């Protein structure tokens, strides 16, 4: 009797295992056909800061290379100040004038802005006068004068020659603050061989590289 009972229990257990295996296969098939029913996979943990990949950052600014050079300061003996254009032209010394291009640009015609190469002698005279009087400023009234401006000034009754040396870039009208035109003209006459005009009322001196001559205006 017990032997038959063992056989019956064994058959029942085998049937249960077969039925369970079939159920497991059916569930696996359903999940394969409908992935949304499958459990979401576990997300990987975010990397810690120490685990993050290194990032290379390039900076545009370059580091200054330290040097032992002492910065130099350029000192100017005197500066020209143009009363019409309000520009400034620094000069290191009477022996080291600015180059021809700089002088021509600074002393260009104030009406047309045309420029031409200027004779350096009147510029050098002005620098020597400022140095002799211990001044560091020279006020410029007129340098190069275009024929158009020269004729315009003549029509306005100014004391302007028809064939002015200013048109040829050979003259300079200037003054030194604190020095009268009469005194300045006397000093220029002792220093310069060319033309020297004195304008005491207007307060400036005319210097050119023409023949030696002297005149007095307003």
How would you portray this structure in words?
This protein is 33% helix and 16% strand. The chain contains 5 helices and 7 strands. It has a domain of 139 residues: Muramoyl-pentapeptide Carboxypeptidase, domain 2, CATH 3.30.1380. The protein has a 7-stranded mixed sheet, covered by helices on one side. By secondary structure, it is an alpha/beta fold.
Layout of secondary structure:
Blueprint lengths: L1 H32 L44 E5 L5 E4 L8 H7 L13 H13 L4 E6 L4 H9 L15 E5 L5 H11 L3 E5 L4 E5 L4 E4 L2
Parallel strand pairs: 1-3, 5-7
Antiparallel strand pairs: 1-2, 3-4, 4-6, 5-6
- Widest beta sheet: strand line-up: 2-1-3-4-6-5-7
Name the beta content range: 15-25%
Q: Distance N terminus to C terminus?
A: 157 Å
CATH architecture of the domain at 78-216: 2-Layer Sandwich
- Roughly how much helix do the residues carry, as a percent range? 25-40%
Q: Count of DSSP helices?
A: 5
What is the H/E order?
Answer: HEEHHEHEHEEE
Return the CATH class of the domain at 78-216. Answer: Alpha Beta
Let me know the largest β-sheet: 7 strands, mixed
- Under CATH, the topology of the domain at 78-216 can be stated as Muramoyl-pentapeptide Carboxypeptidase, domain 2
Helix/sheet category: alpha/beta
Poorly predicted sequence stretches spanning 5 or more consecutive residues: 12-63
Task: Characterize the overall form.
Answer: globular
Give the mean pLDDT: 78
CA radius of gyration is 49 Å
């Amino acid at each position: 009797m017990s032997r038959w009972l063992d056989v019956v229990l064994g058959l029942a257990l085998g049937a249960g295992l077969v039925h369970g295996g079939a159920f497991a296969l059916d569930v696996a098939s359903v999940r394969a056909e409908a992935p949304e029913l499958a459990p979401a996979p576990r997300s990987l943990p975010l990397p810690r800061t120490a685990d993050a990949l290194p990032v290379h950052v390039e900076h545009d600014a370059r580091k200054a290379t330290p040097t032992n050079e002492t910065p130099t300061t350029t000192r100017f003996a005197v500066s020209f100040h143009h009363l019409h254009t309000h520009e400034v032209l620094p000069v290191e010394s009477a022996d080291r004038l600015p180059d021809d291009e700089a002088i021509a640009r600074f002393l260009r015609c104030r009406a047309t802005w045309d420029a031409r190469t200027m004779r350096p002698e009147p510029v050098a005279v002005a620098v020597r006068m400022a140095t002799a009087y211990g001044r560091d400023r020279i006020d410029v009234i007129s340098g190069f004068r275009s024929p158009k401006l020269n004729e315009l000034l003549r029509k306005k009754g100014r004391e302007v020659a028809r064939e002015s040396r200013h048109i040829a870039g050979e003259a300079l009208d200037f003054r030194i603050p604190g020095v009268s035109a009469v005194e300045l003209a006397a000093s220029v006459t002792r220093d310069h061989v060319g033309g020297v005009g004195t304008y005491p009322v207007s307060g400036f001196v005319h210097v050119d590289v023409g023949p030696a001559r002297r005149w007095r205006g307003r």
